[in-house]
Amino acid sequence: MPRSSSAAPGTGRIMMASLVGTTIEFYDFYIYGTAAALVLGQMFFPPGASGAQSLAAFATFGIAFLARPLGSFLFGHFGDRVGRKSTLVASMMTMGLSTALIGVLPGYASVGALAPALLCLLRLGQGIGLGGEWGGAALLSTEYAPPGRRAWFGMFPQLGPSLGFLLSNGLFLVLLLVLTDRQFASWGWRIPFLASALLVLVGLYVRTRLEETPAFARLAARGAQVRVPLAEVLRHHSRNLVLGALAIVACYAIFYISTVFALDYGVRIGHIPRGQFLQLMCAAAVAMAAMSPVSAALADRFGCRRVLLAGLVLTGLSGFALSPLLGAADAPHALVFLVLELGLMGLIFAPMGSLLPSLFPAEVRYTGASAAYNLGGILGASLAPFAAQLLLARGGLSWVGFYITAAALVSFVAVLLLRERSAGQEI
User: Which superfamily does 10-212+230-419 belong to?
Assistant: First the structure.
């Protein structure tokens, strides 16, 4: 069936609609990770043994990853039955509201144990919202992609994490430069959370101006929507669901260890000034963004599987560089570590935007791709900063590096087993 002009907007509109949402969603998610490393422990939890507040803050960080599969099931259901566009709008509003409310929460000193309870509740809201965002954004771009360009179009939402990360760290950096430590700890950290509301308004404007994707339009025209998409995925596509989740484990592990954990370690143990470390992270995020289009172009030319396998080998080897680089406790070595890890993140993350949607047919694609993406987050990211803190205490930095290597090995095997399904799927 030929695509009508109304259902085939220009590349720029597709790019903006898929990119703006993931940028905002990941901005919301990253400001929590940055705040957890800088201030949330002492703000929302009682004092205890050395590092106890950091452990508690990182534990709440992991809660959202446990909620993300729920979000993928919820929003995936409506995305496969009602449409990609309206579901993406709802997921963005859920995430944005939860984030803005964190910015007005009272601390432990004011309301005691209620403070961490409310923080956990809103963190759950963030996870549910983000659980429905990525899959829809990936479908929004790949279901419009012309033949032979699926990896390139699927790369658009994959740039969102880089841009969201830059926005998040850039804003925190400005606040740390213009505010005193007391002002930042008292109220300055709240500003990035409140600013999310403005970003969501921009995202809603862009999203509501786009037509439904051609794949879903054809599906709806035939009345071919599945009654319970999740049941269909579990019944007929469970193998791809599991392998897809395992394939993305390394992306999560390398990112959150090289950002959230590294920020806490570099500032608290390495004694690198917070502002300086945030500058290093912003520079490294540029490397991640730069590698994304390179990786997508290579994936369209040589295939996602080959690019991913090569990238995962490099990711596994990079785990051995964590201890000598981050453990040097100085800015030059930390920058090399961050550029290396986030550059590899861009290399292995960009092809996921086309790989995971290709594993599922259109009638369950939103649910399947979202569930695979977010279930992988439980293994690769939910406990990554927390586990890294425990590994650091038990065995040192080298053990944290082994976490990255092990995650890369898991994903490498999963991509190998996806050989048949990733060779080319009709979008």
Answer: MFS general substrate transporter like domains (1.20.1250.20)
